[in-house]
Amino acid sequence: MACAEAWRDNGEVLASPMGIVPSLGARLARRTFSPDLLLTDGEAMLVGLDGTVEGWLPYRRHLTMVTGGRRHVMMGASQIDRYGNQNISCIGDWARPARQLLGVRGAPVNTLNNPVSYWVPRHSPRVFVEKVDMISGVGYDHANGARFHRIPRVVSNLGVFDFATPDHSMRLASVHPGVTVAQIREATGFGLVIDDDVPYTREPTAAELTLIREVIDPGGTRSREVGD
């Protein structure tokens, strides 16, 4: 549900979710509170909720949306720091990494040219780090005022986070039901901004749960990343 909320009030933008839970979230958002969202087949077509082709999206038009702030991506993060710098490239020194990951992929272009949110299924100090080993996705302290740079939210299995602070450092926006602020603080490798009164993350309505379980993901693929 928290991933779906990332696209609330986005209007007619291209949703680019990467991974199972973000994809389910985008589809739920379009079926409910963000009906103007555009979804793709991952190749060159705009598609409806049932996969029916609704339009053609050639690469040149896709790039126009990417560089003009008309796309909202939700990516994963192997590491993320207090200012939203994301790492999916390597762990350890870049010249001699302890572990090679995906590489920077399109993260720099994504983050500098359109809104990018993040989904982290296993919140821990190894992911939420003081300083990322390599910057793949650009955070607020390295964006240099890029016109379309924005990180609306970070969603983990413990809570929701944003950057609504004077210096754009990460803030705990809500805790998931059953999770405590102390648990989140302990699982984070830097000092979060935490307000005196932190709300709980909105739970799905009965109708939204029915959509998730019976229409959007009847096969339960979401359980590969999180429990039901």
UniProtKB/TrEMBL annotation:
<keyword id="KW-0808">Transferase</keyword>
<protein>
    <submittedName>
        <fullName>CoA-transferase</fullName>
        <ecNumber>2.8.3.-</ecNumber>
    </submittedName>
</protein>
